[in-house]
Amino acid sequence: MPTMTLAKALNAGLRRALEADPKVLLAGEDIGKLGGVFRITEHLQRDFGPDRVIDSPLAESGILGTAIGLALRGYRPVVEIQFDGFVYPAYDQIVSQLSRFYFRSHGRLKMPVVVRIPYGGGIGAIEHHSESPEAYFAHTPGLKVVTCSNPVDGYWMMQQAIASNNPIIFFEPKRRYHEKGEVDTEAEPMPLFQARVVKPGDDLTLITYGPMVRTCVEAAIAAGEEGHDIEVVDLRSLSPLDMATVTESVTKTGRAIVVHEAAMTLGMGAEIAARLQQDCFYSLQAPVLRVTGYDIPYPPSRVESSFLPDLDRVLDAVDRSMAF
Amino acid sequence: MSEPAVDDFVQLLTPDGERVQHPEFDFAGSDDEIAGYLREMVLARRFDSEATALQRKGELGLWPPALGQEAAQVGSVNATRLPDHVFPSYREHAVALHLGVDPVEMLGTFRGTAMVPWDTAAMGLHLYSFVIGTQTLHATGYAMGLQRDGLVGNPEPADNGAVIVYFGDGATSQGDVNEAFIFAASYTAPVVFFCQNNQYAISEPIALQSKIPLYRRASGFGFPGVRVDGNDVLAVQAVTASAMQRARRGEGPTLVEAYTYRMGAHTTSDDPTKYRSRDETDAWRARDPISRVQTYLLSAGAIDQAWLDALDAESEELAVRVREGCLALREPKLEEFFEHTVIDPGEVLLEQRDEYLEYEAGFADEGEPVPSETHERVQEAL
Ligand SMILES: Cc1ncc(C[n+]2csc(CCOP(=O)(O)OP(=O)(O)O)c2C)c(N)n1
User: Fold this and answer.
1) Domains in chain A and their CATH numbers?
2) pLDDT of A54-82, one tens digit each?
3) β-pairing verdict for A144-147 and A168-173
4) What is the spatial distance between Cα B112 and Cα A122, in angstroms, rounded to a whole number?
5) Domain extents for chain B?
6) CA distance B338 to chain A (A)
7) What is the CATH architecture assignment of B6-328?
8) In ligand 1, which atom is closest to the CA atom of B131?
9) ipTM of the complex
């Protein structure tokens, strides 16, 4: 089995999608000749040509709007937003147009468009380069929102997202781009919109996704040394939520903590906590806790380690939940 | 390389340091003023190279070099004075220095100790903008404000003000920039759109953004556009001054395209060898914005070697101050940023801040590090 970084796995997934279907197109700023600022599309323009791997003018609304037009014409565009903080010029096209054509056409118009967004912090960047805007999109009916946390998912989820006829916002945890893993390119992948139990445990469930999955697994292992048996669930899909997997886990453990980098208020944690108190009320032995970024814009990089949930903050919440 | 025919841009000082005439534009300043520009350009370049070096040593997260664009910046900002207001993008370091921004303080943004630290009202310089093109609309709105304040079109020129906004060639593709052109034209707003066409938006050449010379876009919006040799500080000053005066008189916006070249990388994260040739960069090196001014001033007898040596010493002093100052920049604390997220934050945010402070206080003695075998076990689980 080949070992590859998340970045390479995404690249390999894109390559396979381009090979599998001539209607697949990539577009975005600097994705062609340069291969993208993170090199996720490296060599793809060289190998598939500039008609299929398109360097876009510097205009995100234009990138999304033309992707919609290409999709109307039978293409399957996969567009790259260079950094999380630059998706907002395209927000109108995504929220008012891309997400609604299916609805507005009474189900006749499908929008097989994938919007790739490197997201999250922890890379020492300047402002607008470390954001976690997933809740804006998960809040929007008509969109699917997924995020990978490791190379296997990067490889398979990308291909599945491209093969789907839904508009999908695909969040890539940029600080995990260079982490490696073995990728079985022949295996049968798990379904795209399904959560995964990364590490089983009986005492408490950490529910997380994207860049925080590794952090939570580290916390679970560290908590294990203190005698707490923690289960970690990687949501993978933020919309739709695979609540069956989450509920099953929390019904078993009776304790849940949601961990994400995005701000707390009205984030994914709010939705999951609301659902858990509804679906597992009688199993809960402690209130559902959230460990998240604070409700402030992403701060300068010298204080980002205080802003971001880390091992210690997760363990602190584990202690509070266990002590309840 | 796409070099414009000479009659296609305004040039008053050739790359060989010869002053030439232009039918419409003239630089009326003295050689002393030109020497002042040279000094600003040299200091800006030294600051820039020091910042690049600091990034290489890991002291800055990122640096966007202005190398090669000194004439475009120094020439244009020297066409402003209060109550003008300046809206930069993120590469206008020479502009910021001219307006009095402390270079050490500026590095805070790139070191990650600060957001944008300067006092915008005191400097007449708005915050750096990192979202491409957005500031063109803010500049236009600010100009509409000057208009409503009665600071435009007064008989006494000193009573009038205007706005200049900086953006790149890539930015001209953004909807915001095009909307700014529309608003400025509709309201005859006193704003100068100063586009530094440095030929690239990261890896993307200007040909991808525009099939016609950028300055010609202005006519479609109903206002004049001028292309100036962006490596000629005299021409840039003259053209920008004329556009600013026009705006101050109440005659509306102008698009100035400063045709220049980004000699360095887009930022320190970028590798320009992936998308442009050495030959191209070498050809532009021959059109350096600084050397031609130096050649001219030396031949005119306005400066001499001793003057240049003194400037050299001043540059080195600046570099030392920047280097030492950068390392001594105050480390902020996260709680400070809760203070200016919003006016009257409300209970939820204040509670979060207090929880954070309480949590931090619990760390008086350092938390234990992750046990070493954890890494492998994490790897297995993932
Ligand atoms: C809305 C938005 N999209 C993308 C980016 C990422 N980005 C930063 S600089 C840049 C290129 C800018 O090119 P140009 O406008 O020509 O200015 P230059 O950097 O060459 O001065 C891009 C795409 C951004 N900052 N903002």
Assistant:
1) 3-182 (3.40.50.970), 196-322 (3.40.50.920)
2) 999 999 999 999 999 999 999 999 999 99
3) parallel
4) 12
5) 6-328, 334-381
6) 6
7) 3-Layer(aba) Sandwich (3.40)
8) 26
9) 0.96
